[in-house]
Amino acid sequence: GAGVSQSPRYKVAKRGQDVALRCDPISGHVSLFWYQQALGQGPEFLTYFQNEAQLDKSGLPSDRFFAERPEGSVSTLKIQRTQQEDSAVYLCASSLVLGSYNSPLHFGNGTRLTVT
Amino acid sequence: QQQVKQSPQSLIVQKGGISIINCAYENTAFDYFPWYQQFPGKGPALLIAIRPDVSEKKEGRFTISFNKSAKQFSLHIMDSQPGDSATYFCAASMDYGGSQGNLIFGKGTKLSVKP
Questions:
Q1: A107 to chain B: nearest residue by CA?
Q2: How confident is the model over B9-63, as pLDDT tens digits?
Q3: Contact B94, B26 (CB under 8 A)
Q4: I need a surface site. Which of A4, A104, B39, B108 has the fewest CB within 10 A?
């Protein structure tokens, strides 16, 4: 497709379950980012990949959060032992090259995670 | 610590009016300031962006004004239309030096344009 694709669009998990969220970036985009957006808030940075290398994971809130991009294209964000505070929209974004001004971020429509 | 402060939280404007949203930042190392538009159920979409070497950038009905000394920047939407009704986010980042894409977002402004 032409844009960043995320699946599933909605995910309901019981507290303690593990979840996996998928992101298909725009073809050829080198950089991939994950953001977390709580209800009524702006997105917050989680982690960043350049191809398959995870160069920045400073925003991951705990060691229950894990992201990978093994072949430099599709990425998966995994949350282990989900907690209610993990409920949010998880946004994926990609960009062609490094440097946001010349290569802006394109966001997907997100996965809305609800932990009950 | 909120590094980008955005106001107002919500804004109601009549069709044809000017919408103004303000943001202030703290980190003087920021050198990239985009504005994003987000509709319900959708991801943020880039509207317009500016670097600190210019004081204003205009694209169609959208203008960013930038005041480096005051560490403030604002979005002006001229001739506001009902289709502009959305949530707007300002953001900032250090575009180089290993922090590419680590955008710090404001909390958003919900704009409603009344017909």
A1: B43
A2: 999 999 999 999 999 999 998 988 999 999 999 999 999 999 888 999 999 999 9
A3: no
A4: B39
Distance CA B23, CA A56 (A): 26
Give exposure, B80-108, as e/b (b: 16+ Cβ within 10 Å).
beeebbbbbbbbbbbbeeebbbbbbbbbb
The CA distance from B41 to the nearest CA of chain A, in Å, is 7
Angstroms from B96 CA to nearest CA on chain A: 6
Q: How confident is the model at residue B114 (pLDDT cuts 50, 70, 90)?
A: very high
**pLDDT value of residue A96:** 87
Residue A104 confidence class, pLDDT cut points 50, 70, 90? confident
Q: How far is CA B37 from the centre of its chain?
A: 8
How far is it, in rounded angstroms, from Cα B10 to Cα B18? 14
